[in-house]
Design brief:
Blueprint (H helix, E strand, L loop, with lengths): L3 E5 L3 H12 L3 E5 L3 H8 L10 H11 L2 E4 L10 E4 L15 H13 L5 E4 L7 H12 L4 E4 L9 H6 L4 E4 L3 H10 L1 H5 L4 E4 L1 H32 L3 H9 L20 H14 L7 H24 L8 E5 L14 H11 L3 E5 L4 H7 L4 E2 L3 H5 L4 E4 L4 H4 L3 H4 L7 E4 L6 H6 L3 E4 L7
Parallel strand pairs: 1-2, 1-4, 2-3, 4-5, 5-6, 7-8, 9-10, 9-12, 10-11, 12-13, 13-14
Bound molecules: uridine-5'-diphosphate-xylopyranose.
Length: about 450
Amino acid sequence: MTLRISVIGTGYLGVTHAACMASLGFTVIGIDIDPTKIAQLSAGILPFYEPGLEDLLKTELATGRLTFSSQISDATDCDVHFICVGTPQVKDGLAADVSYVHNSIRTLAAVAKSGSLLVGKSTVPVGTAERLRKEILEINPELDLAWNPEFLREGFAVEDTLHPNRLVVGVVNDQAEHILREVYAKNLGEGTPWIRADLPTSELVKVAANSFLATKISFINAMAEVCEAAGGDVTVLADAIGYDPRIGHKFLGAGIGFGGGCLPKDLRAFMARSKELGADRALDFLREIDAINLRARARIIDLVRRDLSDDLLGKKIAILGAAFKPDSDDVRDSPALDIAAQIQAAGASVTIYDPKAMDSARKRFPALTYSASIKECMTGADLVLHLTEWKEFQSIDPREYISIVRNPIMIDGRNKLNREEWQAAGWTFRALGRSSKY
Ligand code: UDX
């Protein structure tokens, strides 16, 4: 019989997982305590932007395999329950707030049928799963808990969920692994690497992967600082080192650094947890990774100040991009918006355009000005900043736009614009880590 699956928490991860599981033929119910979200999702409306996901949601709703509810008791009959609730950074420290995971797992354990498997997908501090498993067994000894971290990237969420580059399952017994093999049978058939681990290792894989990615980005941003000091070009350097297959070209994009709902909070929570475990020295370097990342934001503001003779008061700054990365409307810890807010706080008048993240940015920073188009945003600007590398910005014709700005100064915070083209069109062009041709 086909497995019935529940997905607890219908945020980014949960909705994607629910829709993808339904597309594999499972009967899926998505559960969330927010009735507004449930009403939207049931009507086929995705509360955020993610390429391809709204179409998939509509398709799967239409098949009848996918439903949503705000009542956890509606998940009682399911065989497998995926826990996909958030673990944000706590307000007064670096650690992750695991209260949503705790609460949903405890509530679920009270209603889940005997023999069903609870599977954590949320990113949690190592040790959480073992603790929760004990609690669950106290509530109902016929339940089990496994951990199955999720590595999806925003902007590629559907693709990454349907075709992950590996599947990691933290289990305590063969029965749990057997059920998960059934869930992921299609991927196994396609040869996706399957890694069985114990619970703590499976929790660690996720934070280790994100810490490594963050380290790569901060490494290249540190090189950008050195290139600026030495008169080198970090884009050429990244390209050159990336040809070594042990290094690779990916995640060596120097610029204003990483943001979003995962990398920054995960590496902070990892540091906090390692301290609790008495292994804080091991992750001391992550402090520096975080510091380099935040410094990139400060460095670009320095470039702005330099070009405007340290006088930002009343200057019009056009900002292209608000999302933390392209193909997303997510502005959580977005370097672009952080920079925008800091420049505005320094007295400039900031105008932002983003192809998809206008609503989420406006909610987060209502005091900034938002434009309906690139043209409106750049009109009359004393300086333009390119902060999120949407494709649309790479096809801007610098010759056309030079006539609408007050001062043709472009600062590329993502190293994705063609410097030669912009310079040939008469712009002053700056970028982080590329001081050689200023
Ligand atoms: C990340 C992980 O990649 C994913 O596996 C995990 O499940 C969740 O966290 P995501 O937050 O979607 O995914 O974004 P990612 O593509 O990793 O980018 C993170 C940040 O790094 C973005 O702000 C991006 O702009 C920045 N970045 C990325 C760089 O600054 N330079 C690069 O070369 C690559």
